[in-house]
Amino acid sequence: MYKRILKQALRGFLAVLVLSFLFLLMAIVLAVIPVNRHAVAPPDGIEIYVSTNGVHTDLILPLNTPDTNWQEQFPAGHFRQIQPANMTHIAFGWGDRGFYLDTPTWDDLTLSTAVRALLLKSATAMHVTYYRNPQPGEFVRSLMLTSEQHERLIAIIQSSFARDARGNPVLIPERGYRGNDTFYAANGSYSLFNTCNDWTGRALRRIGVKTGIWTPFSQSVMYHL
């Protein structure tokens, strides 16, 4: 009996290893193969940024342009401490709600949170952060968009927010990490095959930016940038 249990456990372990290997292989191959491979950035346009902390990616857009005024939708009163006059950009990141809210630092990560985020379809949130004059660097890439691309990106971001009866984003109160960020309820479900980084990559693909077919990891997004 014990031998049979041991064999079943070993088979289960090997199955997990094989599936994990296939997932990683698929993620690497599809991230390297580009969509919009012949896309060329306009010489003049609207500059945005894509940032990463090594695990998660954000889209960083100008705070005020002829296309939109983000401050009207995300007022200073929703944040613990910002001075709107000093802010120039606003960042958006979509992700698993439990992971976002329960893991302000990596020390707070628990196995149950990770398992729910990766293996179960779960509720989502939008992380919104105000910035002043972001600069390209090791963890931040600059992208130049046409006005049309910028408008389409705004629409994609807007559609990711859950909204109340008046059409306003639904604030999740008192849950920001610092004074310049906060969280809102989001649309969609998070899973192993629909991650925060695929949200970023999918948005870039849809507006014609060169990026991978599938981008489940932050490195998948940043590779073509």
Model description:
This protein is α+β, with helices and mostly antiparallel strands and 225 residues long. It is 35% helix and 22% strand. It contains seven helices and eleven strands. It has helices spanning 2-32, 70-73, 97-102, 111-119, 147-159, 196-206, 218-222, and strands at residues 34-35, 46-52, 57-62, 64-65, 68-69, 89-96, 124-131, 140-145, 171-172, 181-185, 211-212. A hairpin with a 2-residue loop joins strand 4 and strand 5. The longest helix is centred in the N-terminal third of the chain and has 31 residues, at 2-32. It starts with a helix and ends with a helix. The model has no long low-confidence stretch (mean pLDDT 86).
Key traits:
225 residues; two-stranded antiparallel sheet; globular
Question: In a few lines, what is going on in this structure?
Answer:
By secondary structure, this protein is of the alpha+beta class. The protein contains seven helices and eleven strands. The mean pLDDT is 86.
Q: How much helicity do the residues have?
A: 25-40%
Weakly predicted, low-confidence segments: none
The number of helical elements comes to 7
What structural class do the secondary elements suggest? Answer: alpha+beta
Strand order of the largest sheet: 8-2-3-6-7-10-9
Strand-residue proportion: 15-25%
Mean pLDDT over all positions? 86
Number of strands: 11
Report the order of strands and helices: HEEEEEHEHHEEHEEHEH
Largest sheet: 7 strands, antiparallel
Distance between the termini: 55 Å
Q: What integer value in Å does the Rg equal?
A: 19 Å
Global shape: globular
